[in-house]
Design goal:
InterPro entries: GLUT, MFS_dom, MFS_sugar_transport-like, MFS_trans_sf
Order of helices and strands: HHHHHHHHHHHH
Number of helices: 12
GO molecular function: D-glucose transmembrane transporter activity
Subcellular location: Membrane
Radius of gyration: 20 Å
Helix content: over 70%
GO cellular component, one term: plasma membrane
Strand content: under 5%
Largest sheet: none
Membrane topology: Multi-pass membrane protein
Length: 197
């Protein structure tokens, strides 16, 4: 999870650099490429997953809601910064386009100091000691055996569950209508103009 977030941050910094250099290069195609790279990024779903997994149970709901809060805050800051009096002027719009790289850079610098997700360490890697160390680093010293037991129960449940690849998921008839609904909802969100705003 952490490595994937780091790779996504590199992708966002590259996209921001491409968009920021589009005026110098006199290439609107660079803006299209940069926006496409931002769209391909998996930061939002990964943020939910990572923050939810590293949070103690009593703070998990609050931690997962931070993504929506910062998503909305980012849009508000973008709209304010895009005013002609600030970064929306003819000379400064490349800075506005490249500003999406700033949060990615902050996360790229700070994320290596955070531990990997405890459920990931225990369930995927089978590293119980690494899981305990990550929990102590995240939540402080104390008795965390109940959380580890919960992760172990989830791991036992997952053993009986077949994990499908993307191709198997698309071919599975039982999931076809759910897949259609998700694709339709995602497409309409993309086409409604919210990203342009």
């Amino acid at each position: 999870r952490k490595k994937c977030l780091l790779c996504n941050n590199v992708l966002m910094i590259v996209a921001a650099s491409i968009m920021g250099c589009s005026k110098i290069s006199q290439s609107f195609e660079m803006i299209l490429i940069g926006r496409f790279m931002c769209g391909v990024s998996l930061c939002v779903p990964l943020h939910h997953q990572y923050v939810g997994e590293i949070s103690p149970r009593k703070l998990r709901g609050f931690a997962n809601s931070t993504s929506s809060f910062f998503w909305t805050l980012g849009k508000a800051v973008g709209q304010i910064s895009g005013q002609r009096e600030l970064l929306g002027s003819q000379s400064l719009w490349p800075v506005l386009m490249a500003s999406c790289g700033l949060p990615a850079l902050v996360q790229l610098v700070t994320l290596p100091f955070f531990p990997e997700s405890p459920p990931y360490l225990l369930m995927q890697k089978g590293d119980q000691e690494g899981c305990k160390k990550a929990i102590r680093q995240l939540w402080g010293e104390g008795q965390h055996q109940a959380e580890i037991d919960d992760i172990m129960k989830e791991k036992a449940t997952m053993k009986n569950t077949k994990i499908l690849s993307v191709l198997e998921l698309v071919k599975e008839p039982a999931f076809r209508w759910q897949l259609y609904m998700i694709v339709t909802l995602t497409a309409t969100i993309q086409l409604c103009g919210i990203n342009a705003v």
